[in-house]
Amino acid sequence: MSEPVIRMENIVKTYYEGKPNELEILHGISLAVNEGEFISIVGESGSGKSTLMNIIGVLDRQTAGTYYLEGYDVNRMTDEVRSAVRNERIGFVFQNFNLLPRANALKNVMIPLMYSEHKRKDQKERAMEMLAMVGMEERADHRPNELSGGQKQRVAIARAMINNPAIILADEPTGALDSKTGHMVMDLFHKLHEEQGKTIVLITHSQELASETQRIVTLLDGEIVSDKGGER
Description:
alpha/beta; Rossmann fold; six-stranded mixed sheet; 7 helices; 27% strand; globular
């Protein structure tokens, strides 16, 4: 069997290490995610899921343990390589969209390509392809303040996909949306998973959303207390 896309072994995360008010958030997390899996990481506020997400997304470093991303030891990477991994191998989708307010949808989608070798004309074509994929090509010239919440999130998903990442990491992607719009966004993730075989890690506190994924990993007080198949 091939190497998992994500392999974490005994991940510990401690803040204020060695100080009297030392706080251990993650207590020896071990997790493997295979290529093409759609999993959810569920937990209440304070369970450690945001901390775990930051480590998976190479936004933060663990205090102890090892993390292999596509077979590479993340802790041995230079800051420059870590930055490239974040930009090219992981597509981020956030609850609050993280779009640049002064840039239109097309330019927002093109942001991860700013550091790539693609020519600008090719970048624009690729960005339009991604907008078309999420049904937003007719809104390419619109700025975020001219878009609804669901439209903003679709632009954010197009941006996440632009570099053809190994993993899509979605942090509460429907948290700022009403129920109907949230389901539309989830349908888009299912489409990416089923039609393109994308590996998707969904961070959520919603059991309802988690039940749509293939596998539900439940965190409680910085430990995995359950890892089981979803309903879909």
